[in-house]
Design a protein that fits this description.
Elements lengths: L13 E3 L2 E3 L3 E4 L6 H11 L3 E5 H4 L9 H8 L2 E5 L6 H15 L3 E4 L12 H13 L3 E6 L3 H10 L5 E2 L13 H10 L6 E3 L5 H9 L4 E4 L1 H4 L4 H21 L26
Parallel strand pairs: 3-4, 3-10, 4-5, 6-7, 7-8, 9-10
Antiparallel strand pairs: 1-2
Helix pairs in contact: 1-10, 4-5, 5-6, 8-10
């Protein structure tokens, strides 16, 4: 398994419910042109965590191999999700089935409110999170940048929050950058992962530059002309954004400031003569 439990050489690990991973890119496994391309994309991304839908796992290919078998061969950690669930009860039932099937307490919790926007149902999300946390799940809630909902999710027992950048599959990037920055500042000590709406590597880089701890995406890679190359591009973008955040960014100015000092140049006073 690629998951790094104890790596004394890498001090910038992402801690998720007590498990440390070196890659801050999480990748979905749906909608790829073929299982072979999906596998190659996962490897190219360097991810150590992939999301898997229970509905996808229950579908078997003609050879009889389960999708789970394919994921196991990649040596990555599985984060099952409750994609497609419309009620808290449905999400809890799906999570219980996923725990049995994948042998993990990790669950990406989705409770969808609207078919057109796929916006999270924040009321159902909190309800389901309370129940799952009480049953010792490690819940990764797909939410919005709403601070009150985030507070309630944390009170329910969630130790990771995953706000959307934009509606799932739109590729529009960080539509409410101000809200995401506010959320980052408000929950300074909580792992925050941008989930959904990321379309190009620069979106992922931006999320990391404003201090988010990771990025989860699927469609931007799966539906690219070359998914494998795009997966590699996202891996580099996440690393660059994280490095830029850690380096400390310059303050923005309203007026121009020359990078080369004017005083002391050879012909400084010629135009005044």
């Amino acid at each position: 398994m690629n998951v790094v439990e104890n790596n004394v050489f890498n001090t910038d690990l992402l801690n998720l419910y007590g498990t440390s991973v070196s890659s801050r890119l999480l990748l979905g496994t749906a909608r790829y042109p073929s299982p072979k391309i999906m596998s190659a994309s996962v490897l190219a991304s360097g991810t150590e965590v992939v999301t898997v839908s229970l509905r996808r796992e229950l579908a078997r290919d003609p050879s009889g191999h389960t999708f789970h078998d394919l994921i196991n061969e990649l040596g990555v950690r599985v984060l099952p999700n409750t994609a497609g669930c419309r009620t808290a009860k449905e999400a809890v039932t799906t999570a219980l089935m996923a725990r049995e099937l994948f042998a993990t307490n990790w669950i990406k919790l989705e409770v969808i409110a609207n078919d057109d926007t796929l916006q999270p149902d924040l009321f159902g999300l909190v309800e389901a999170a309370k129940e799952l946390c009480s049953q010792e799940f490690n819940v990764f809630p797909y939410t919005t940048e709403d601070l009150s909902a985030a507070d309630k999710l944390m009170a329910a027992g969630c130790k990771v929050l995953m706000p959307w950048g934009a509606p799932i599959g739109t590729g529009r990037g960080l539509e409410n950058r101000y809200g995401l920055v506010t959320m980052r500042n408000y929950f300074a000590a909580i792992p925050l992962i941008v989930d959904a709406g990321v379309g190009v590597p620069s979106h992922a880089c931006e999320a990391m530059e404003i201090g988010f701890d990771g990025v989860l995406l699927n469609t931007a890679v799966a539906r690219a002309v070359d998914p494998v190359a795009m997966a590699g591009a996202f891996a580099k973008a996440v690393e660059a954004g994280r490095a830029g955040y850690l380096a400390g960014q310059m303050e923005q100015c309203d007026m121009a400031a020359p990078s080369t000092p004017v005083a002391g140049t050879p012909f400084f006073d010629l135009e005044k003569r």
